[in-house]
Amino acid sequence: MMSHGCLKEPKEPNESQDKAIAQTIIELERAALVRWCSGDPSGYLEITAPDVVYFDPFIERRLDGLESLSDYYERLRGKISAERFEILHPAVQRSGDMAVLTFNFVSYGAHHFELRWNCTEVYRRDADSWRIIQSHWSFTKPSS
Amino acid sequence: MMSHGCLKEPKEPNESQDKAIAQTIIELERAALVRWCSGDPSGYLEITAPDVVYFDPFIERRLDGLESLSDYYERLRGKISAERFEILHPAVQRSGDMAVLTFNFVSYGAHHFELRWNCTEVYRRDADSWRIIQSHWSFTKPSS
Predict the structure, then answer these.
(1) Exposed end of chain A (fewer CB within 10 Å): N or C?
(2) CB–CB of A138 and B134 under 8 A?
(3) In chain A, what residues touch B91 (CB-CB under 8 Å)?
(4) What's the ipTM?
(5) Which helix (H) or strand (E) holds B55?
(6) What is the pLDDT of residues B74-113, one digit of tens each?
């Protein structure tokens, strides 16, 4: 279809495009996690948008903005390690330039220590790059 | 501007439109929470999309789909109550037909019992109605 100009985006979902975007986003996340699990938070910081908002189980309230998140992550640099991890049943829901990635996550440390997580990452396409604008990490079934 | 037909959405953010949408979404959430805190999950179910995904601290893994969520919520009907609650510093990040609402939440029960939460709700505009497609509730600083 070579029409130009007044061309609306098709309303029908384009399955192969959706799959490609889902795969791109899952791979971005996986690559950031590989670096994270070796103590390097820069993998995440490099794909995070300036207006990011962030939750994890260790902070009193939502963190707002890349500067706050960078400060927080820099204090963790070199202190986190996991021998391996699993991303369980990742799902991507997309509309236009926003996509929501959700998954359960398991990280394995020394001495069979494992942690189980719930994770929601919202990505937004900014100038052709997908960037995280919202991160929510929580423990699966914490004791309180 | 009365142009019809081939009219693209303006690329510049429309601040008053953004504010109005943010307010709409926060009010949808607040109204659902009022009903939730009186034991009625239908407020949420009525604004939830068929493809919703859901996390909370009590389940082993992500719940997928409105039917699963309805089953889960129906078991809680009449069993939840809070005397009052607070939605703290709600923020809405929107791109097109998707909007991410995040906030910290405090619910107050009898005998000064309080629970503190992190919450992320992703809304999508389906046929002019905003619907929840992702819900992630977690405790703020749980003990493990």
Answers:
(1) N
(2) no
(3) 53, 62, 64
(4) 0.90
(5) strand B48-55
(6) 999 999 999 999 999 999 999 999 999 999 999 999 888 9
